[in-house]
Amino acid sequence: MRPDTLRELAEANGVENEPHIKDALATLVIHSTMCKAAGEAAMANGQQNEDGIVTPAYGEGWRQAIPGARMETIPGAGHFPHWEQPEAFVQRLSAFVDGHND
Length: 102
Hints:
The chain contains five helices and two strands, in the order ααβαβαα. By secondary structure, the protein is mainly alpha-helical. Strands 1-2 form a two-stranded parallel sheet. Helix 1 runs antiparallel to helix 2.
């Protein structure tokens, strides 16, 4: 669904200010923007699903939706791999950036 379609439906039903509608709209806006991204994208996702917020399957869905994207899975991390395993995160980020600065 396109963001403007959800916005119109929400407004027509008087629910445009409901938190779950705002969250869904934000996700659709991000998704539509990311899918238009040019070039490569690297995403990091934790391997663990203990927090239940962002699962590896959710990250894989984003990887498939963004042309040229790749997913870096970081063992021992969950929703915040950059906080939970900062060294592993920086290593993967540096490798991605270095690979694009040749």
